[in-house]
Amino acid sequence: MITLSVCIISKNEEKNIGRCLRSISNIADEIIIVDTGSTDKTIDIAKNFNAKIIKSNWNNDFSNARNLALDNAIMDYILYIDCDEELDTSNGMLLKKSLGTKDNIECYCINLINIVNGKKNMSIQSLRIFKNRPEFRFKGKIHEQIFPSICEIYGDDCVELLDKINLYHYGYDINKADIQKKIQRNLSIFREYDENEKDGFYYYNLGNEYLRLNDLEAAIKNYIKAFNIPSFDNGFRIFLSIYLVKSLFDLKRYKEALYYADKFITEYEYFSDLIFLKAICYYEIGKFSNTKASILQYLASKDKVVGYPEFKFDASTDIIAFLKELSTKSIDTKGNALTTIIIIDKDSPHLEQTIKSVNELSKEIILVYDDNKTFGVKELQHYLVKIYNYNKKGLSKTLNVLLKRITTPWVLILKSGESLGLNEAKLISKDINSNSSVGFYVPIINSSTSKIKTTEFRLFKGSEYKKYSSLNKFEDSISLQKSINTSSGCIIES
């Protein structure tokens, strides 16, 4: 009959270790605990479960402690578990019966479920069970791994998933863990690494610590370092994809979030949570057709691959209602016929709204601004816009250069504090796709009174108007010969 050693490392875990040991007591043929200096009742509690206690000095190296436990284990297989974890006892005996049934399997993954605020937060597959062989050793001072040493000998096809076995982790539950103390301990260990030890897994885990501190900038910096190391592909790269894209999203760095989402989707084609994140990025910048396409891709990808981690970003989203909303907000641009130029001549709290109001309608958006008069414009690049500073050449010369470069048939001009409503954007789309005019005067509506303030020449064919002096003054004789109408849409002034 297959026998099982359960290996644990501990230090001052009196609040957790009893729960942990109760969960494995029925399947463990022996319990090995390496204690690194407990001063509370941890050891007394462990002795009640007939655990073998090995006392060891803590030297800021988790692998050393793990491997000491392995050195003292004598059973056929080893399950390693932490004090702040609990095995689901409903399938405990199934775990033991599953071991050793296939000759080519050296190790097993089980479901690791994080418990946060008393609720199941995320499920991943974690390698926790392996044959007791002296050549299998943990590596890494922190976030230590056993699989590299197994893989070196038996390849990466020697692992099996026991998908009915669940392990609950309470380590990041604020009600049961001193999270800040853990993070600072972990960071101090990371500082002890030599430069030649800093691989992709190092930067990934360092990024995770900063993420837990809510230092998103530092987290992103380390995640990108991990991304740029090609050899980092040890099963955790898929988590890197979510943590990096989600952190960029939370900082409203949508352009970068979309860039990395696309990069990772080429690696994990059916990772539905990542595709959903991509969709939400598009939604936040007002690209509703792109959002809809990504949501449809997300639906097509669900359940295609078993074993991907589940973050459940869609848990609070009614997908059917969301698709209906997107269908309403999507605009058929018939080949992206429009470039929008936004002239920023003063600071405005509504610049993001201005961009979002035309992002669905426009193939591209160009911001022109004077950096002597406005601030924070460069951050708007995350909305997939191009930015030009006109304070050296002047507005007219800058626009004239841009008009020659624009490749779309139509150009729309907005100013600071202006935007398009959804219906207005659809009407403008209809005008440029079904009218023989070469330009339109567009009514400017005051948002507080809903009355027309003025009508200005803002919408025109780029091929007909190549020289700009100021609004309503395009120096091109062809404008006197061609048809100019008034648009059925309007611009809303905040």
Automatic annotation (TrEMBL):
<feature type="repeat" description="TPR">
    <location>
        <begin position="200"/>
        <end position="233"/>
    </location>
</feature>
<dbReference type="InterPro" id="IPR001173">
    <property type="entry name" value="Glyco_trans_2-like"/>
</dbReference>
<dbReference type="GO" id="GO:0016740">
    <property type="term" value="F:transferase activity"/>
</dbReference>
<keyword id="KW-0802">TPR repeat</keyword>
<dbReference type="Pfam" id="PF00535">
    <property type="entry name" value="Glycos_transf_2"/>
</dbReference>
<dbReference type="InterPro" id="IPR011990">
    <property type="entry name" value="TPR-like_helical_dom_sf"/>
</dbReference>
<protein>
    <submittedName>
        <fullName>Glycosyltransferase involved in cell wall bisynthesis</fullName>
    </submittedName>
</protein>
<dbReference type="InterPro" id="IPR019734">
    <property type="entry name" value="TPR_rpt"/>
</dbReference>
<feature type="domain" description="Glycosyltransferase 2-like">
    <location>
        <begin position="5"/>
        <end position="142"/>
    </location>
</feature>
<keyword id="KW-0808">Transferase</keyword>
<dbReference type="InterPro" id="IPR029044">
    <property type="entry name" value="Nucleotide-diphossugar_trans"/>
</dbReference>
